[in-house]
Amino acid sequence: MKKRFGIDIDGTVTSPESLIPFLNQSFGLNIAYEDITQYDLTPFVNVSEKELAKWFTENEPIIYANSPLALGAKPVLTQWQNIHEMYFISARSAELMEVTESWFKKHGLTFDHIELIGSHDKIESAKKHQVDIFFEDKHDNAVMIHEECQIPVILFNTPYNQDPIPQGVIRVYNWREANDWVKNWLK
Fold first, then answer.
1. What is the mean pLDDT of residues 65-92?
2. 75 with 62, same domain?
3. pLDDT tens-place string over residues 95-144
4. Do 74 and 61 share a structural domain?
5. Is 169 left (phi over 0), alpha (psi -120 to 50) or beta?
6. What value does the mean pLDDT take over residues 156-162?
7. Which DSSP symbol is given to 14?
8. CA distance 133 to 160
9. Which domain does 75 fall in, by range?
10. For a surface tag, which of 6, 13, 147, 158 has the fewest beta carbons within 10 Å of its beta carbon?
11. Sheet of strand 169-172, all strands in order from the earlier edge strand to the far edge
């Protein structure tokens, strides 16, 4: 049965570790992925929120163009794209569409739709596109999407999303586990 999948990009399809080398190089740090225990990066870089936002905006195209695929994502996404509709919904801003589409092509991933909403609030897009399931790495997004849309949300485990989750948000540790959960859900 064909379903419409809503899928976040950064930290879900791309490796959640993608940003670390850029932070370390730009800010003279030596932080490890495991050190990032919250989504807000300001405490880790010793600059103001405004300075970090400016740095991020300036570096987004380079970071996104060079982000590696999450381990195990390609075979699962390739399998799904032949069966389901793939709607990638990201907090990236719309002016990053060319970089985003180029990244997908470079990695041999296809999509039915990419929506760059410029905000972490993905509920409206999930409702508008009537997605049946969502894949996310940001804890509060996962919980809100599940609660507002009444759909299962697969939460990819990271050091920064360890808060408790309600039933209906399913924590997985890799794409193989996500695929296994989806197979059971579809039965």
1. 97
2. no
3. 999 999 999 999 999 999 999 999 989 999 999 999 999 999 999 999 99
4. no
5. beta
6. 98
7. B
8. 22
9. 4-15+69-186
10. 147
11. 113-116, 85-90, 4-7, 133-136, 153-156, 169-172
